[in-house]
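To the team - zinc ion complex, inputs and output below.
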Amino acid sequence: MLRRELPLEANHGRLLRVAAGRIAPGAENTPLQAAQPWPDSVQPLAYWHDEPIALSVEEQAGEDWPDGRQWLSRLPESWFPLISTALQVAAWLRDHRFCGRCGVPASRLDAEFAMHCEQCGHRNYPRISPCIITLVTHGDAMLLARSPRFPPGRYSTLAGFIEPGESAEEAVHREVYEEVGISVGRIRYYRSQAWPFPHALMLGFFAEAASRRIRIDGIEIADAAWFQPKRLPQLPPPYSISRALIETHLAEVADGIGVK
Ligand SMILES: [Zn+2]
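Output:
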């Protein structure tokens, strides 16, 4: 399991090699490279089953490096926090080499995940972008939609970034209305999940639709429809909070909870 403490004393341990959202294959069908001395360029990341782990952020991924989704689908769910943390910290290091305020090269601090500007003192930390993800229901039925980017046949819950100054609940109302033209009420918080594509924090909600009439926006959403529990489309992957929202609703319907 993952311990969120930087292994600052270690100079030897296992490495995760990450480039552009892809992670190099390592030992024993995992992404962890065998234990080795750490060069100064690596970012100490965490402890994994009490072993120190560091991140090597590289310029170019090898052709055989699986991307984050491929790793998540082939590894047990217990790996999710490590993979998610590694991808997000690697994306941040790659994208924050220069000070965003004055533009000079920034340097990495040791004691925490931070990039520091010697010239103006500005610091930046790994970016986390809060998003809402909502399963809209009407009785037993679920409103699922597909983005133009999805694999053919797949439908999922509605999601979107929270805008500056907006609460999560306001974002649920706005995103659902923008994407499918439906007003929702009885918003109920479910749980959250870090989502490393590239650095979202998904806040999961259930919401009840005021009506079933769908008006899709045609940009973010290619299609949306109501689905009954007995006739489901291809669903999002098992490691996603989207899938957990759907499975939770299905279990509640099976138990006779929340059915109108
Ligand atoms: Zn600066």
